[in-house]
Design brief:
single chain; Rossmann fold; alpha/beta; 193 residues; globular; 8 helices; binds flavin mononucleotide; six-stranded mixed β-sheet
């Protein structure tokens, strides 16, 4: 089993990466493979279509998804939102029913608002949202500071552990004959007729 992790920061090995790396290492320790896709810089350079194609290819063999973003002006980065807008509108069938989690990194504030924005991509796509023992956030301006956020580090470790458990439970359910719920046609009741 494999989890795809998205790094929505412009800094490839910054704070968001540091948080994602803790989640990835914990997943690995629990027998789950991982791959981190760095989208922030390339999204900012106009490579959205190429990035989304790459992510869709990776999602075909991924069983779970973790999206990481720095907090910019109390929101997820514009880069990650641009990427997710395109990915989620075009890759629904490769996302649906796969466990997902959001991770945010900030110096100080705007974390829960950003966390909320990211989780909404999952809950409109029937993705089971994996939780930890707090909202998934770390605090810091550098990887060193993030590693000093002991509570944040533990949140990431538990998130990885819980996601591994859920992935294994779903796998065991499939082996025991539990069928995935079928996709239903959405009832779209637009406000303007
Ligand atoms: C454009 C910009 C806006 C930011 N806005 C916020 C903010 O609203 N709240 C906050 O606590 N930190 C803010 N920060 C700091 C980053 O969220 C923080 O340093 C984060 O951990 C960086 O993650 P990264 O190293 O993965 O890019 C901002 C940073 C930048 C570059």
């Amino acid at each position: 089993m494999k989890v795809l992790l998205i790094n929505g920061s412009r800094r490839e090995k910054g704070c968001t990466y540091t948080a994602l790396d803790i989640v990835a290492k914990t997943l690995n320790e629990n027998g789950i493979d991982t791959e981190i896709l760095f989208v922030g810089k390339r999204a900012a350079n106009g490579e959205i279509d190429a990035l989304v194609s790459e992510a869709k290819e990776l999602l075909k063999t991924a069983d779970g998804l973790v999206v990481g973003s720095p907090v910019y002006y109390a929101s997820p980065s514009g880069e990650v939102q641009m990427f997710l807008d395109r990915l989620f509108i075009t890759a629904g069938s490769d996302l649906r029913l796969k466990p997902a989690a959001a991770v945010v990194s900030a110096r100080r504030a705007g974390t829960s608002a950003s966390f909320d924005v990211l989780n909404k991509y999952f809950t409109i796509t029937e993705m089971p949202v994996v939780s930890s023992n707090y909202w998934n956030m770390v605090h810091g301006n550098s990887p060193e500071e993030v590693l000093k956020d002991e509570e944040g580090v533990q949140i990431m470790q538990l998130l990885g552990r819980n996601m591994a458990w859920l992935l294994k439970s779903i796998e065991a359910g499939k082996a025991a004959g539990v069928e995935q719920p079928a996709l239903v046609q959405k009832n779209k009741t637009n406000f303007i007729r």
